[in-house]
TrEMBL record:
This is DUF962-domain-containing protein. Residues 164-191 form a coiled coil. Pfam families: Mpo1-like. Keywords: Coiled coil, Membrane, Transmembrane, Transmembrane helix. It comes from Thelephora terrestris. It comes from the Eukaryota. The keyword Cell wall biogenesis/degradation does not apply. GO terms for cellular component: endoplasmic reticulum; membrane. The keyword rRNA-binding does not apply. GO terms for biological process: sphingoid catabolic process.
Length: 195
């Protein structure tokens, strides 16, 4: 893994460079949480790895925990976020936990696999629409699949914090970094056209 993978500023700037259009940002703010939730539902349908202990807990009819692939992904992602940005991650953990617990509980319902798959596909299509029509640029996942998939929820969390008026200096720094990256991209496109 490159050192840039552990630089919050570089990671947010990379992702932000692909999400400058306000309509596209709103599409992502809506769709990314639904994609994560539906992915957790889908991941909860996978057979539990035999190497893992069987841990299950119900917290009422709408919240449940299973140590499964979805839980492993959620925990690993939050640990990565914590390395990048401890304080912001502490604010994100309750959201991530709620998403995982509701998805795990929903996964036990009849028809949950098809519902989650439908939500997942529709949200991905909406994001491609946002990039193609509003952003005018291919999604970040075409340049860095893992980075885009892992960073999307954190980026959306930051966008929500910015909209609520938090982290003003971080927002300003990020906008400057995104501006520089977009300028570099435009210059590269001009060079390619000249050749």
């Amino acid at each position: 893994m490159s050192p840039a993978a552990f630089s919050l500023r570089q990671q947010l700037a990379f992702y932000g460079a692909y999400h400058s259009n306000p309509t596209n940002v709103w599409i992502h703010i809506t769709c990314v949480p639904l994609i994560v939730w539906s992915a957790y539902v889908l991941g909860s349908h996978l057979p539990r790895p035999e190497a893992l202990p069987s841990i299950h807990a119900d917290f009422g009819p709408y919240l449940a925990f299973d140590l499964n692939y979805a839980a492993i992904w959620a925990i690993a992602t939050e640990l990565y976020y914590f390395i990048l940005t401890p304080v912001v991650t502490l604010a994100h953990i309750p959201i991530a936990a709620f998403t995982l617990l509701t998805a795990t509980a929903y996964a036990s319902q009849p028809g949950s696999l098809w519902t989650a798959a439908t939500v997942h596909v529709l949200c991905w299509l909406a994001q491609f629409y946002g990039h193609g029509v509003h952003e005018g640029r291919a999604p970040a996942l075409l340049d860095n699949l893992l980075g885009a998939l892992v960073l999307a929820p954190l980026f959306v969390h930051y966008e929500a914090l910015f909209m609520l008026g938090f982290l003003k200096q971080t927002k300003k720094d990020l906008q400057n970094d995104v501006g520089k990256l977009n300028t570099e991209l435009r210059l590269k496109k001009k060079e390619v056209k000249k050749e």
